[in-house]
């Protein structure tokens, strides 16, 4: 079960890359900065580098601020591994469902929800740190896409004002800056998203080996590689939904959306908040669309996406708990 736990964790990172790869590069593709193929290759490389280079603050939030590690360390090895496997399996199920439906839900919140459900099933509600979940997950889930929306709106307004008398030279410069910012979006996503998997694997290792929670270098590297490969091989599914169906995206819109996303995600990486990068990207796209007129945004698609955000944590928690009970019966 120990090696299966690590393997299914890496599969979870891979599927997260498949699920979110199109979202993080959607504006770059729809604004024709990159072809879809070049975009996902660049995103996969950036995901790997971000995961390796930007630290493990989010991983320690996941391993210490969702479930009391005392419960994990005091339980049996088998229970600990089963708990981690159930968390990963529950996340995989919901991610595949939303990927198939082309819904840019949060693979991060799917994993957190499944972790909560599996934790309740394994250790009971008393060991769930509800107050920290409310602050670091629920509030962050609500505030981060709103910040993405507001910053996207304001940055695009500022960009248009600065460039209103700009020449074609400035248009070329914006294209270059947009390509750089596309890389940085994927770079920051790679760090934040891969660390959720790292954190759960670290919990499993701690419970199995009977030691304090620690994220070893081989876990960082393997999760980074799995996430990057997932983005490269499957990151096409959400490009149309985020980059074309919400509103029309051009180079100016794309740059403003990307700059907004980078600002929010980098702040979360430094503070250890396990936010959802696809939610922030989607919020920023709505913001840049609204800058011209609210009618420019396809609110029917937007409402569908927001509903997916809201139901992700409770549904994935239910799946994670159910998977744990099924595994215990085997």
Oligomer: single chain
Helicity range: over 70%
Average pLDDT reading: 90
Give the number of DSSP strands. Answer: 0
How many helical elements?
14
- Sheet bearing the most strands, described? none
Can you write the helix and strand succession as a string?
Answer: HHHHHHHHHHHHHH
- For the record, give the distance between the C-alpha atoms at the N and C termini, rounded to a whole number: 12 Å
Radius of gyration: 19 Å
| Strand-pairing-aware structural class | mainly alpha
Residue runs with pLDDT of under 50 for 5 or more positions: none
**Percent of residues in β-strands:** under 5%
Question: What is the overall shape?
Answer: elongated
Descriptive notes:
This protein has 330 residues and is mostly helical. It is 82% helix and 0% strand. Helix 1 packs parallel to helix 6 and helix 3 runs antiparallel to helix 10.
Provide a concise account of the structure shown.
The chain is mainly alpha-helical and 330 residues long.
Write the layout of secondary structure elements.
Layout: H1 2-24, H2 26-30, H3 36-53, H4 57-65, H5 69-74, H6 77-100, H7 107-123, H8 130-163, H9 168-209, H10 217-234, H11 239-245, H12 251-271, H13 277-292, H14 299-329
Helix pairs in contact: 1-6, 1-9, 1-10, 1-11, 3-9, 3-10, 4-9, 6-7, 6-9, 6-14, 7-9, 7-14, 8-12, 8-13, 9-10, 9-12, 12-13
For this entry, give a set of tags.
elongated; 330 residues; 14 helices; mainly alpha
């Amino acid at each position: 079960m120990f090696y299966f736990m690590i393997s299914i964790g890496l599969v979870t990172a891979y599927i997260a890359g498949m699920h979110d790869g199109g979202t993080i590069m959607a504006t770059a593709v729809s604004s024709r900065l990159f072809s879809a193929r070049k975009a996902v290759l660049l995103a996969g490389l950036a995901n790997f580098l971000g995961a390796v280079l930007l630290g493990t603050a989010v991983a320690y939030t996941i391993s210490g601020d969702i479930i009391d590690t005392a419960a994990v360390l005091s339980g049996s090895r088998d229970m600990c591994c089963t708990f981690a496997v159930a968390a990963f399996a529950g996340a995989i199920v919901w991610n595949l469902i939303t990927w198939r439906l082309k819904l840019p839900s949060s693979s991060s919140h799917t994993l957190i929800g499944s972790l909560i459900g599996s934790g309740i099933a394994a250790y009971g509600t008393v060991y769930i740190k509800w107050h920290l979940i409310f602050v670091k997950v629920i509030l962050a889930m609500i505030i981060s896409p709103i910040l993405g929306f507001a910053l996207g709106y304001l940055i695009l307004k500022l960009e248009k004002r600065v460039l209103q008398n700009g020449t074609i030279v400035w248009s070329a410069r914006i294209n270059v800056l947009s390509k750089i910012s596309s890389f940085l979006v994927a770079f920051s996503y790679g760090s934040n998203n891969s660390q959720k998997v790292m954190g759960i694997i670290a919990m499993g290792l701690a419970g199995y080996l009977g030691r304090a929670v620690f994220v070893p270098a081989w876990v960082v590297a393997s999760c980074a590689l799995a996430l990057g490969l997932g983005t490269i091989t499957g990151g096409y599914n959400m490009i149309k939904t985020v980059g074309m169906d919400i509103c029309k995206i051009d180079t100016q819109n794309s740059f403003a959306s990307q700059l907004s996303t980078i600002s929010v995600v980098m702040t979360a990486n430094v503070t250890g908040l396990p936010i959802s990068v696809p939610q922030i990207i989607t919020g920023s796209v709505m913001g840049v669309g609204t800058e011209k007129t609210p009618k420019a945004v396809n609110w029917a698609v937007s409402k569908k996406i927001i509903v997916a955000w809201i139901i992700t944590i409770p549904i994935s928690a239910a799946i994670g708990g159910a998977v744990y009970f099924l595994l215990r019966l085997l």
